[in-house]
Specification:
homotetramer, about 500 residues, alpha/beta, TIM Barrel, eight-stranded parallel beta barrel, 17 strands, globular
């Protein structure tokens, strides 16, 4: 440990046989770890023999280095004077003069916030946040579906009072908004997920912590008031042990009130902006020839093998064999927290979920921000589908939505249709990218004001008084699935197949 | 009073503790007035210690200065020679050579008029007139809804005669058009509301005077012929006394035939063009942190606190606690004039209004020019909704519409669907901006000719003969609200809640 | 007559009191004629004292000068040497090098033809042909309605034979196309209407001669084969005598098989492209203040007063008092030719027309090329409306359509829906503008080939076998008028009002 | 034969009377062949007296020269030194630096592939592949119809296994994709149809060999594994003998499992991009005056006469007199292979086809890539139409679709609606143009990965489990033909007319 390493020494070790990297000024031998890296071997080998701190830092929670590596892997400090002078690669530079960027208080809406964040963030972060599947059709639909719904303002009612408070699984929130589990917040700003938590605290909103957060749950929760409401997202790992260990840790954190089991991305969608950025940054290694596997891929999908996109790194290790019958009982053994299932996109699955109450207490209608299957329906479609085929679901469990929220009117429309809470992922991340904690606070400030204005113009004082009579969703209703309900078949399916 | 002040002296007094301003060459100590300024303290403090005439003049009726300030506040004349040489701020300059602007008689339609006005007016005036809520969706819908309705021209009928005359609440008009209550006309042109009145007189149209006119009602009516038809818009003030005093004044003016009680903007919508202009012109004072209020804003909404937009200044003082049960009886005590309710956007509210006849004799279906709730329905939606759910309303009270009128065909389509009169706000203001009285006259000249051509091509001689058989509104009808009528519930609601 | 005039002499006479003009090298005193000029006084006065040949020639049939003026008005020849050197005004110059223009045989479709014509014609001619009412919505709809109809090609049928011949009112045509009565062909090319006739002869198509043709009927028919089919359009003149004299002349021309009574433009629509061109070329005379007439214009509409557009000149003198009850009997007295009513836009009027068979033998569903009422329905709408409400009309009289034809598929779709013939105005005029006779022939060559290809791909050999089973018009059907049929009311209306 | 010819000698023979061309360094006297050239005389005469190798080679299968010409036509070798120095015509040059073109592994989707191919191919090849009929409406619809269908992803199902294998007429394929019979592959890349076959082999896909392939069937099949599945497309020739000879040859090739009888282009559609390219390259010969034929073209359509487009050359010789009654029995005499009918676009024809089972074992719903009748319905329309009117067809015969496939989601949607296999023409050709065999492989690699991701996100393991419950096609269903089914009439029609 007493030895100090030079950059030249490190740079000899750049293969799978002997792979060293520099992190935070120390030299590590990660040769043994390379094959089991959740993000795939390739991404490490690209950085072998070099200082990997800049790439490593924003996407790994502090402390995970020590957790993952045996002590002997830490070889010792680097002699910093031996580092070559570096030029920042172009994609990582700030793209514009800070001066030319709109100040936060001049940002009037989510588009302004996104524009500022796009200017301030690295291209890699932008590509990861912005990207969605294929041709971005679901991403686009997520927002336009709200525009297609008209409001029905009422008049001549006293609107001096307006109260946006509500509850989420019985926990009081000042505004029925939650941050969808969005990964890698430190990619956008060093304040990271903890910064989002701070802003949520200011506005009394709920935050769902991503399984792939760039900070640990403990770090994110640090300093939050006792009544702040958090959920924790679980991506079940192929190696169930890892998930079980995480659950033990989560069960200890009393501010975490529920587990969100994400189901809508058992494999990642094809996010081309993210992939292109990965290709640009990545090396010229040949990509996998997937066709050599023949027609039937009987092994689990292996996103590790895809090119160096953020998403592909993140999905490595995620289990694809979750089922109603096996996963919920397993989960019951490892946590008493209520379960919220995320990513339901049909009335059939919503109905199934409602049969699993009370273990399951909520569902999030979500197409994963348009990032999973392109042309998957927006959450509002699924919500109207539920109203049409099995409205009783809305009584049995809480139904939340996310995706495409740009305006307070969007939030209010979702609530009118029966959503108990409304989630946003990109808005929070863009807010963070635009100005750290203050940026996320600006996001909430704008949306809260817009929600209040909308409620007042609908002549509604309390969230619970919003209802379908306040909107005209006819232009959307005519596009909703119109096939057989299939609910009887579902019971049979449950018995037969699960 | 004998004393003459220098600019340097005045410029010492630029705080809430001692606030002087120069207006029309005189120096005023407005310290005591600052906290009670209807437009908010901030907007005055921004101009403290300076010559505020240019900002003050176009948005305040002459005489209101004397009404509002105690005599001792007028300190005395300014020594004009001490004024610093000023450069006109860029936003206030005329943006183009007058020569390059299309002459009025070459303007063939409302878009031409708007284009000319946009070039001639200050950016502040343009931003105030042009702006609408959020993403301008309702503003856009207001017009496109007319394009989606097809005409059904009839042929082989004698069309040598064509008569556009009609009545508005029993008062004869030569054309069934009214100027919607549009504030701050002098922002666009010194002819102001009085200029609009002059043009209305030429064409026999009706004018509704804004509560926030930049001239007094008496000034606006001056010189108008005895049979010219006016209405007066009431924004009920939180301080009811102020409204009652205004009503006393209005009751005296016999040309004012009705009171328009505006209900569609109890809080202003979010008009970003206007807000951005306010931010550009305004100072760098930090904006309000509204979130410090917590989730429930139990006090009346306080638009004063918003940044220096025209709208925010204007809405200060407006009451948010109007109700069917309390406001109409109060109003009955203070005026015998018939009441027209403005801003109804649902068949439910139209139905309710019809129950209040004969005190209420008319309603204006309006989404406030798209300036209140974005994605609120265009007036034509509400009109078709009334035809569908409670057509008897059209027999009991007059139903007027406004918003989005660009063509004579638009006017005729609204009349075919049962509107008794059709209002325009921006057209009049843009006409004024494009050429004062002559500009507004050009607006009417164009529209009257278009209305006559349309009537002739429909083979209809008189306004009252226009009917739904003359149009095909099917493309719009399929988007109309299709939920439960809720009219029975309404009676209960009236008993229970009001 | 012996005297020769100098330009200086002529230029002294430029007022209504003494108005001389030079035409074709001769000097005329038109003082007495000015007030009775069908195109209005203004347009002559603008050219008073000058050589008006260039403006006069392309819009007046040869010979009409002698017809209209007393012999003494012709003062004598001009001394050509006294003419000032003239620079061609910019709008009248050819806009591009002839070399850069696509040759006719490279033009593959109507858009190519229009593009070439636009480059070759004067701006005035382009503006007159191109223009349509208001915002060009009906003009645009005229074409897009065809795109929205899908074909239903059939296969495995012998398609070696394909026969486009048909009949029009019993007269054989080689292709069921007619040239809609389009005015002022010589504006676009000196070949004029006679050139169109020549091209129609080559392809066996029908031509309807415009009442406002720039050549006389006799000139147009000259040299045409005995079996060529012509119709003649009648715009009934306020001065009925003039129309009666024309009918006497027409009755003598045996190739003219029917009279088309145009009903869809009793007043001209507002054609802004044409009007703008008129304003640019016209003088700075103040335009009419129409509002001085008050609300009721009880006199006939006076388009003469409008600015110097081609349309306004052309509509002067047209009667607005035509009716089912009075005009058809009058017409019966003056011609035995079958009558075709042009410009029907509702099933009601189509139904009424069918009651007037056998005097009325056909109707042309037309919105006047989108030039009359903007947002009037495309002919295809009216055709489907007839199929829905009163399909018997299709058995009693021939139903033709025009407007928006761009492709052979458009023609075939109209025929499938029951149209007996399909008309085109602009295509013929653009063809003429693009290359005189050869240009119009190219138009027919392209369309005939497209029609044949479409018929073959539908597996249909003969025009009469085309039917609704060959198309899918569902996307259009859902926009068709859906109100009460009103056919019973029509009988009453006929009795009561006519 | 011993004689060597000079370029000057050859260039004397450039007329129909004596026509020599140089091909692959030899001089041929093709005078006798000119009138019977399937692609028309004109196209040869344009190259008479010159070296035609560059034009000839990519569109003729090797060996066909010897097949078509008598031995004495081959005059002898050219003295290469006498050839003039040539400059490559501009349209034929590679249009961009190869360096600036995206490498294949960076191509993420079909649009990338098309963009690369567009840069690499000759303009002539691009124009031929890219072009579609008229205004490209059917071509555009072919793709957008897929976007309008939403997916219905299911969750909480084990998706570790995913099997894309299926069968085509009982033959196993690893992926239910086929290459539509696309002509002239060597225009795009020298690897030609054989290259496509190689890529199909890698991925276990099916290939339908075009009747107009630029390589012989034997060449294309060379080296393919015994279980690779091929079909062969038959364009029946007017000279039936030629087709019969081809069938003899095809019957011998055991890897060819079925005959695809193409019915959707008995005449070619009007492909303007292709035609324009033909006009640019072609000479200035006057085009045919088709109107001289009169209204009835009782002879077979003669596409030979059209300008020098690739399509026009290719369609020469194709029979237009195929019928259900005569062609299928004739075919039965010449092959025992199952027949697949290509180009059905109505439920009526699909129903008819099903009556001809078991000779007919499949149909391909196709509008010929939008290249035949513009505004013909996309295959998905016809598929839904079949589901609506005669779903039993799907049980009796296999129904395949092609046209507009851009994404794996498109493929999956077609399968969900009941398609047994999905074809692509342009994708394969663009892949070839982008990189030969490797380019086509990249096309399959991308689509296979997308299909697997989509299946996993729908929670479907096997192709046969995909069904209508996995999609929401409501937005498309409302546009489907809604007229009378006409199936009873069809039986009558069969009896009466066939």
């Amino acid at each position: 440990m007493g030895k100090t390493y030079t950059y030249d020494e490190v740079s000899q070790h750049r293969s799978a046989d002997s792979c060293w990297v520099i992190l935070y000024g120390n030299v590590y031998d990660v040769t043994k770890f390379v094959p089991e890296h959740p993000g795939g071997a390739k991404i490490i080998l690209q950085l072998a023999g070099q200082d990997a701190t800049e790439e490593y830092d924003p996407i790994h929670p502090p402390g995970i280095l020590e957790e993952s590596l045996a002590p002997e892997c830490k070889l010792g400090p680097l002699d910093a004077s031996t580092l070559p002078a570096v030029e920042k690669p172009k994609g990582e530079e700030k793209k514009e003069d800070e001066d030319a960027i709109m100040p936060l208080d001049h940002c009037l809406n989510m588009d302004d916030i996104e524009a500022v964040a796009t200017k301030k963030m690295s291209k890699k972060a932008w590509a990861y946040y912005f990207s969605a599947a294929d041709d971005l059709r679901s991403k686009a639909l997520n927002n336009t579906v709200y525009s297609d719904i008209l409001l029905r303002p009422r008049v001549f009612v006293d609107i001096t009072k307006c109260d946006t408070s509500s509850t989420i699984l019985g926990n009081k929130v000042n505004i029925p908004l939650f941050v969808s589990p969005a990964a890698m917040a430190r990619l956008g700003h060093p304040d990271g997920e903890h910064g989002i938590a701070r802003a949520c605290s200011t506005f009394g909103a709920c935050q769902i912590i991503s399984n792939n957060a760039s900070q640990t749950p403990e770090q994110i929760l640090e300093g939050s008031p006792p009544d702040q409401v958090f959920g924790w997202q679980l991506y079940v790992q192929r190696d169930r042990k890892k998930s079980e260990e995480m659950l033990v840790r989560i069960n200890r954190l009393t501010k975490i009130k529920f587990i969100v089991l994400t189901l809508d991305a058992p494999v990642p969608g094809k996010r081309e902006h993210d992939e292109r950025e990965g290709k640009n940054v990545g090396s010229n290694l040949p990509i996998r020839s997937s066709h050599q596997e023949g027609s039937s891929s009987t092994t689990s999908p292996d996103p590790k093998a895809a090119s160096g996109s953020v998403a592909s790194a993140m999905f490595a290790g995620t289990a694809g064999d979750l089922t109603w019958k096996t996963t919920l009982p397993w989960l019951a053994k490892h946590t008493k927290l209520p379960i919220v299932l995320k990513g339901l996109q049909t009335h059939e699955d919503a109905y199934l979920a409602s049969l699993y109450a009370p273990q399951v207490q909520g569902i999030i209608l979500s197409n994963h921000g348009g990032r999973a299957a392109d042309t998957a329906p927006p959450a509002i479609h699924t919500l109207i589908e539920i109203r049409k085929y099995c409205p009783e679901v809305l009584d049995k469990i809480e139904v939340w939505v996310d995706g495409g929220i740009k305006r307070g009117t969007d939030v209010v429309k979702a609530l009118c249709l029966g959503a108990k809470a409304v989630g946003m992922g990109r808005n929070a991340l863009y807010g963070l990218g635009a100005g750290g904690i203050a940026g996320v606070e600006r996001v909430y400030e704008i949306l809260k004001a817009e929600i209040e204005t909308t409620m007042r113009l609908l002549a509604v004082e309390k969230i619970e008084d919003l209802g379908p009579q306040h909107i005209n969703a006819r232009a959307v209703e005519r596009d909703i699935y119109d096939g057989p309900a299939g609910l009887e078949k579902l019971s049979m399916w449950i018995k037969a197949k699960l």
